[in-house]
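ok so i was messing around last nite and threw this chain in just to see what happens. nothing serious, just curious
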Amino acid sequence: ESEQLKRVFELSRRRLSSFYLVDPKTVWESVVKHLCELFDCELVSLFLVDENDASQLVLESQHPPRPSGLGRLRVPIESRSGAGLTSHVAASGETISLNESDIASNVFVKDHKPTYLRSGLCYSVLYVPLKNRKSHLLGLLRLNNRSITHTDRHVPFSNSDTLAMHLLATHIVSLLENR
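result:
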């Protein structure tokens, strides 16, 4: 677990340090790709609050990438049954980690198939809000379907995973506040 923290810190230091030197989109793509590999996830997504409409998140980057031609995904920031878990987490501003049984019974995802996942099933999910020092939401990181490398075994996200993501989220927020 400490090795994973070191790898996330290195990712944060190496990838995010280029934020002001290259196109931010390139940095975000690199970060989500490396998170996907590090946590062996089916999908990693970075949402940012829409600069023109603070009531919505915009999918800034994800790995594997969305098929081209689908346009930018927008997600309302609201907490109501049927709006979806991403909407709820953005509205609540709380870190949420759910495993398969928690997902199946969650009021925000009940009876909704995760069509954004290639597998069509959600086994585990970790949401980490990106909030500034005043607790204003700037964005959200979502990791789906953690597994053990080279096996078909799906595992929940651990406390160590959550801690590592909070470390990375702190660095991302610092960049967003200073751009």
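not much to say yet. The longest strand covers residues 137-146.
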